[in-house]
Structures are given as structure tokens and as C-alpha cells.
Specification:
Length: 553
């Protein structure tokens, strides 16, 4: 029995070491991923807020029929891009009250992926469903799409490198979660325990509570994030079967790769209205998206999609019609077990199935994940600082690693909210005719974060924590005021106006709440600092080595 106890305790201690270092080595990158990914649950609403030119048209959307909305979009696309390789139409819905249309042209030789993406962003228009006319041209911005892509593609590098880096960090995260569960034998009891003003113990309780509160979510979001890119991380099985022709694998497994080539023979596109009616009769609900491949060609295809509803699958039900004759070609039916499992896992990660309440719950769990990562990083710093307590009291200095982690914590935990806020401020303040405006907004994000990180490295003190938290509070809390000054949809209008303005009101209220939270944290730090200074004045010998800013929680 004694021998068995030793082995069990040894495993737990080993897992504690693994948990600490697997989490610490990537925690600052994970915090960026968690913050951006959490915001991405509302990326459509964020994009709408960042295009204030659309707010007026969305204030009182009409109950336009889908067939009429599609006809308006098709007419606009025929005028703008009759020879495009593809048309994309988003019909009015609860989250998108306007008619959005875009198109793609055949790529030119030598165009990079970023050049094609930039060109695509310019090839779109938005229609007012009440009038059928173009809305005011929205400003050039990636909006919430930038945050969505940031959480797995990163920036300033190829998407392939970014996904590998984020994937490795996610693997560390998965190891940290599993080892954390093994380490804490009273994990659920600790969830109901919080002992304030106990220094290290308080930070451990906060870390345990935020981890256990959304533990199923943390496990799910980490594992599913890895599975969504499993063909990139583990390419050998597919290469062994399909060689280098990965498109053949996707066409066979996912059945969503259209390899039809244009016939190069002109043929008018038939009326889409009967297709929409047929799809609505079959599904019992109206389609939400229309994709036309090779419009005005004999091989044209029209694909109609509807939302997946409460199904976990990320694959939207669709019906495909011949664009030249209007005949039904195919519709999505039963999927293989393998494809169904993969689609459900993917769907869990992106949460397309979530209604407004469930989406809010996902958002709260994402915030809990941010708090879990942040408290874990702070806990390591507090523990290591205590080892240097006697050295510092005698006028010595803490180790380089502790000082580095303190600075990185400030730059990430307090600096990232500043970067997010600056990104939104830049959307309103940058000139509308600025060249490469979308890149300028992203540059503002990273410039603000870099400035916070550099300042933290220069002076990783309690004062720097307060400064950056206060700055983040002012910038985030000031976004509703900025919106009121730069648009006509201030908080009062968006709250009591039409349902199309609810995303604006939600954005303003959430940023205001986050700003108040950061402001409270800055106030709390100042209050604790004054109490510590009054209770025990700092010794002159230790003046060059200020105490850890969050040492006494």
C-alpha cells in the first residue's frame, strides 16, 4: 500500500511540473488566441459596428421576400461583374439585416494569396432592402474578420506558419489542461473555494475557479481547434492515399469541392426565384445564402444554403441547381459517419449553431479562458517572487526570469486590451481614403501592443500595471462616446431604434462593461499599493527593486 501511495503522489507531482511549464511557455500567445477567438464569436456584429455607413440602412429593415432580395442582388452583379468566376449573395437575416453581394474574378498569374484577398474585399456592394439601392459605400475594414483570422493565422507571416505556431501552442494547452486535472485531486471542491487577501493562495483559487468553471469548454475548444486543422498537422495518411492531390481527397471526403470548369459558351442565368421557392418548400425555411459558379455560362451552377440551425455540423444544408436550365442537380443528404463526426467537431468550435443566449454563454466561457490563462501566468510570478523575498529585503535583485515574466504579464494581460481598443479607435479616426486602410488598422493594433510590451520591459512595476489598465479602461470605456461623436447611432438610438441596430448597442455595452472592469482593477491596485505603503514603508536599499505589482492579492 505504501508503495502504491508513493507512485500515485509521484505522478501528481510530475504532472504539476508539466502543468506549470506547458502553460507558462505559451501563455502569452494563448492569451492573444483566447481574446481574439472569444471576440470572433461576434465577428459579424463587430464588422457591422466598424462599418457605420451601413447603420442607417439597417435601422428599419423591411420584410422583403427572399426572391426579391436575390433578384436585386443578381441585377447588381449582372451590372458590375457579368464575367466573374463566382457570385456570393447573403440574404437578409437576424444577424445581417442588409443584402450583401460580392464576386470573384479569375486569378491573374503571379497574384499572391494576400493580393487575391485584398482584391476580393474591393469586389462587393451592400443594398438597402427598403429601397433596393446601394447603401453608402462602407469604409475599407476587415472588422471582426481580422480578429477571427488572428486567432489561428496570426499576422505578418504566412497563414501556414501562423497555424503551425498556434497549433503547437494549442497542443501545449491541451497538455496543461489534462495535467492540471490530474494535479488537483480536489479540483471541484476548490472551485467553490476562494480565499481573498492570501497572496499566492488567492491567485491559485482564482486560477482553479476560472479553470473549473468552464473546464468542458476549455477542453472542447482546444481539442476541436486542433482537429479543424488535423490534415495540416498530420498530412502523412492522406498523402499515402492521395499523394500530392489534396483536392481529390477533399472532393471525395467532404463532397464540397466543385471541380466543374466553365464551358466558355454563353448562356443566360435563369431566374433564381423558383429555386428559392423549391428550397424553402423542401426545408421549411428560407435559404440565407446564394452562390453562383460561372454565371452566364453553360456550366453555371446555383447553390442555395440555409443555416444549420441547432445542428452541431458546420456544413450548411444546400441544394445545387443548373444555372442555365434551373434543374435540380443535387442536395445534401446523409453524410458518412466520418464526415458527420468531423463536421460536428468543427461546428462545436465555430458555434454556428448557437442562438443568441448560447452564443453569449460561449463568449462568457471564452472570457473565463482568458482569466484562466492570465491568473496562471500571474501565479507563477507570485510564487517565484516569494523565493526572492529575503534577497530583495537585503537590497538584492530578483532573477532575470522573474523580471521577464513580470514584464510579459503586464504587456499581455494589460497591454492586449489596449491593443484591441486602439484597433477600434483607428477604425473611426483613420482617414476614409487612406491607402491600404485595412492594413493600417492592423498596424495600429500591433503598434499599440508593442508599445505596451516595451514599456512593461522598461519598468515592470505596479505603477505600469495601473497605467496600462487605466489606459485600457479609458479607451474601451470611451468607445460608446467615440461612436456617438463619429456617427448618428449613439447608444440611445441603437438601444431603442430598430432591431437592425442591436449589434451596435451590444458592442457599445460590452466595451463599456470591459472598460469599467479594467478601471476597477486599476483602482484596486492603487488602493492595495497605498495600504502596503502605509503599513510598511519601503526600505531605501530596495528602492531600485520595487515589489511585484500583484504580490499581495
Amino acid at each position: 500500500m505504501k508503495e502504491g501511495v508513493v507512485v500515485k503522489e509521484g505522478l501528481r507531482q510530475s504532472m504539476s511540473w508539466v502543468h506549470t511549464w506547458a502553460g507558462l511557455l505559451v501563455c502569452w500567445l494563448l492569451l492573444l488566441v483566447f481574446m481574439a477567438g472569444t471576440a470572433a464569436y461576434y465577428r459579424h456584429e463587430i464588422t457591422f459596428w466598424m462599418k457605420p455607413e451601413l447603420h442607417k440602412a439597417a435601422d428599419a429593415p423591411s420584410k422583403i421576400a427572399n426572391a426579391d432580395a436575390a433578384a436585386l442582388a443578381v441585377r447588381g452583379l449582372q451590372e458590375r461583374a457579368p464575367k466573374a468566376s463566382g457570385w456570393f449573395i447573403d440574404l437578409p437575416s437576424e444577424r445581417n439585416p442588409l443584402i450583401s453581394a460580392s464576386w470573384t474574378n479569375p486569378p491573374k498569374k503571379g497574384m499572391s494569396r494576400e493580393e487575391r484577398r485584398n482584391a476580393f474585399r474591393q469586389q462587393n456592394f451592400v443594398l438597402d432592402p427598403m429601397t433596393g439601392l446601394d447603401t453608402a459605400a462602407p469604409r475599407d475594414t476587415r472588422g471582426g474578420e481580422f480578429l477571427y483570422r488572428l486567432h489561428f493565422d496570426l499576422y505578418y507571416m504566412s497563414a501556414l506558419w501562423g497555424r503551425w505556431i498556434v497549433g503547437i501552442a494549442a497542443m501545449f494547452m491541451l497538455v496543461a489542461i489534462i495535467s492540471g486535472v490530474i494535479t488537483h485531486k480536489r479540483i471541484f471542491k476548490d472551485f467553490f473555494t476562494f480565499r481573498p487577501k492570501k497572496g499566492q493562495r488567492s491567485w491559485l483559487d482564482a486560477h482553479n475557479a476560472t479553470a473549473v468553471l468552464a473546464l468542458p469548454f476549455h477542453l472542447m475548444i482546444t481539442y476541436t481547434g486542433l482537429v479543424t486543422l488535423m490534415f495540416m498537422y498530420m498530412p502523412s495518411p492522406t498523402k499515402a492515399v492521395y499523394g500530392e492531390d489534396q483536392n481529390a481527397m477533399f472532393a471525395e471526403v467532404f463532397m464540397n469541392v466543385d471541380r466543374t470548369k466553365p464551358a466558355r459558351a454563353a448562356a443566360p442565368l435563369v431566374d433564381i426565384a423558383p429555386m428559392l421557392q423549391q428550397a424553402e418548400r423542401a426545408w421549411g425555411e428560407a435559404p440565407t445564402r446564394v452562390v453562383v459558379s460561372h454565371p452566364n455560362d453553360a456550366n453555371a451552377k446555383v447553390e442555395l444554403f440555409r443555416s444549420s440551425g441547432q445542428q452541431l455540423s458546420n456544413i450548411e444544408p444546400s441544394m445545387t441547381f443548373n444555372g442555365a436550365t434551373g434543374a435540380l442537380i443535387s442536395s445534401t443528404g446523409d453524410m458518412s459517419t466520418t464526415l458527420s463526426a468531423r463536421a460536428a467537431i468543427y461546428g462545436l468550435h465555430v458555434a454556428h449553431f448557437a442562438d443568441s443566449l448560447l452564443r453569449a454563454l460561449f463568449f462568457i466561457c471564452g472570457l473565463a479562458g482568458c482569466a484562466m490563462v492570465a491568473t496562471g501566468a500571474l501565479l507563477w510570478g507570485v510564487k517565484e517572487r516569494q523565493k526572492y523575498a529575503k534577497v530583495v529585503a537585503q537590497g538584492g535583485k530578483v532573477g532575470f526570469g522573474v523580471r521577464l515574466v513580470d514584464a510579459l504579464n503586464i504587456g499581455a494581460i494589460a497591454g492586449l486590451p489596449v491593443a484591441f481598443a486602439v484597433y477600434f479607435w483607428s477604425n473611426r479616426l483613420l482617414p476614409l481614403d487612406l491607402a491600404q486602410r485595412t492594413n493600417a488598422e492592423a498596424n495600429c493594433f500591433f503598434a499599440a501592443w508593442a508599445a505596451c510590451a516595451i514599456l512593461a520591459q522598461i519598468r515592470p512595476t505596479r505603477g505600469m500595471w495601473r497605467f496600462q489598465l487605466t489606459l485600457g479602461a479609458v479607451l474601451l470605456g470611451g468607445l460608446p462616446l467615440l461612436n456617438a461623436v463619429t456617427t448618428n447611432t449613439h447608444l440611445g438610438v441603437s438601444l431603442f431604434g430598430g432591431p437592425g441596430l442591436r449589434p451596435v448597442a451590444g458592442f457599445d455595452l460590452v466595451t463599456l462593461a470591459l472598460g469599467l472592469l479594467l478601471g476597477w482593477a486599476a483602482w484596486w491596485l492603487g488602493r492595495k499599493g497605498k495600504k502596503q505603503a502605509a503599513a510598511k514603508p519601503a526600505a531605501p536599499a530596495a528602492a531600485a527593486n520595487p515589489p511585484a505589482p500583484l504580490e499581495a492579492a
